[in-house]
Every structure is written in C-alpha cells, then in structure tokens.
Write a structure and sequence with these properties.
InterPro entries: AsnC-type_HTH_dom (IPR000485), Dimeric_a/b-barrel (IPR011008), Tscrpt_reg_AsnC-like (IPR019888), Tscrpt_reg_AsnC/Lrp_C (IPR019887), WH-like_DNA-bd_sf (IPR036388), WH_DNA-bd_sf (IPR036390). This protein has 153 residues and is of the alpha+beta class. It folds into two domains: 5-45, Winged helix-like DNA-binding domain superfamily/Winged helix DNA-binding domain (Arc Repressor Mutant, subunit A), CATH 1.10.10; 58-139, Alpha-Beta Plaits (2-Layer Sandwich), CATH 3.30.70. Helices cover 38% and strands 20% of the residues. It has helices spanning 5-16, 22-29, 33-45, 78-89, 115-127; strands at 65-73, 94-99, 106-112, 132-139. A four-stranded antiparallel sheet has the order 2-3-1-4, with helices on one face. A hairpin with a 6-residue loop joins strand 2 and strand 3. The longest helix is centred in the N-terminal third of the chain and has 13 residues, at 33-45. The radius of gyration is 20 Å and the shape is elongated. The mean pLDDT is 96.
Length: 153
C-alpha cells in the first residue's frame, strides 16, 4: 500500500498523540473528519498502524530496572531460534527481542522491578534452558532518550 501525503501527516500526528479525537486529528492534518476517519481505519486494516497503546513510565509503575541482554545459543538451527523466540514471547518483562548478526544470537530489552526480579527471570529463562550458551547483561543507569516514532517516508 502506498502512502500519500495525507496518510503520512495522519501517521505523524498519531505517533505524537494517539489519544486525539478524530475531529482534532482532522484539524491538525487539514482534512475533513470523515476523510480522516476513513484513512485511519484503512491504515489500521492494512496493518500499517500495528497497535494503539498507552506508553507507561516504568519507574512509576514498579518496573524501574531496564536490562539489555545479549544471548548466545549453543545450537542456531532455525527450529532452535524459533523455539527460543516463542519462550521469550510469553514473558511480559521481555519488551523487545531482536535476532541479530554478527555476535550474539539475540538482544533483549527487559523491564523488571529490581535486581531480584531480574535474577528470577534470568534463572527461569536462561539458566535452566539447555540451549543457552552465554548471557551478557547490561543494566541501564540512565535513559537519555526513548522514542516510539518511526520515520514515515
């Protein structure tokens, strides 16, 4: 699906504030409310708008520790990678999972309450998993930037 200028303006505004009313969104993107609503529905139906969520401040809801974790598996056959991804997908604290190359097999972004919670998660997901060869964890001491916007071209 190709995006025209109006689609791009809508996507830009929704990435800034998805809670806008259709009327306010239409005004900001210089379109009629009916046109704007049709376009948003089309963008959702096509999958370009994947989800509409609230982004929370982790430290204000008891999830103040961010870990960036590199995982290397012993066996990298496709079925082993997929099985490990499925295990990670079930864990809500694993917020992002990237299969990467070269280097480790996965890089994870994990959000938990504290070091004890991280230790429990690491034991449950990594230490008891026979195919995990190496785990390298980094803990955020400060987050200077966090964005969810994607450049629409």
């Amino acid at each position: 699906m190709s995006l025209d200028d109006l689609d791009k303006r809508i996507l830009q505004q929704l990435q800034i504030d998805n809670a806008l009313s259709n009327q306010d969104l239409a005004s900001l993107v210089h379109a009629s409310p009916a046109t704007c609503l049709r376009r948003v529905n089309r963008l959702v139906k096509s999958g370009i708008i994947a989800r509409q969520v609230a982004i929370l401040a982790p430290e204000k809801v008891g999830a103040g520790l961010t870990a960036i974790v590199e995982i290397t598996l012993d066996h990298q056959a496709s079925e082993h990678l997929v099985a490990f991804e499925q295990l990670l997908a079930q864990e809500i604290a694993v917020q992002q999972c990237y299969r990467v190359s070269p280097g480790p097999d996965f890089v994870l972004i994990i959000q938990v309450a504290d070091m004890a919670a991280y230790h429990a998660l690491a034991h449950r997901l990594f230490a008891t998993h026979a195919n995990v060869r190496n785990v390298r964890s980094f803990f955020s001491i400060s987050r200077s930037k966090f964005e969810t916007q994607v450049v629409v071209t």
